[in-house]
Amino acid sequence: MQMTEGEIRASYRQAKDKKKQIGILADLNSCPKDEIKRILEGGTMEKPKRGRKPKSLVETPVEEKKEAAVKSPKVRTVRIVRNTTPVKLAVMEVPRNVKGVMDEKLLDMRDSLTRLKADYDKLGRDIARREKDYEDYRDFVTTVVIKHEEVEDGEE
Questions:
Q1: pTM
Q2: What is the end-to-end Cα distance of the chain in Å, rounded?
């Protein structure tokens, strides 16, 4: 069991679809639906034995958890909590309809990034062209001023 009986009851009370919530709670807690139903009806489960935690629940450093998550090919979503409570890495399959939407969003983002990069490159070229035009204009004005001063000096 990952959740306490109180947490299970609270989650069930807050759920919009009570029937589905029983299945969700059973999956989250790795137990049969009957166990969840018994808890919701007021029955209690076996109380956990006191003493040392099983080796699988002993807290491991966050970095080790990250490494384990990266090495596992089935893990798609990993939630790492930085506290003293045990963390269980869960394998979650992404539903096909969600995956399709995610793929579409990813493609949209790639298209947007491509357009932004092209605009950025175009702006860079435009800035370089304007800087060149400014230098040419500055050189032209300097030349005109120098010639004008020469003409004025020659008239005196």
A1: 0.32
A2: 103
CA-CA distance, 38 to 19, in Å (whole number)?
14
Residue 29, classified by CB atoms within 10 Å of its CB into exposed (0-12), middle (13-18) or buried (19+), is: middle
- Structure-block tokens of residue 29: 């807690």
User: CA-to-CA distance for 89 and 147, rounded, in angstroms?
Assistant: 80
Averages of pLDDT over each 10 residues, the chain, 156 residues? 84 89 89 89 58 52 56 52 56 68 84 92 94 93 86 72
Q: Compute CA distances 41 → 12, 72, 105, 141, whole Å.
A: 11, 38, 43, 91
Residue identified by tokens 């970095």 is 63
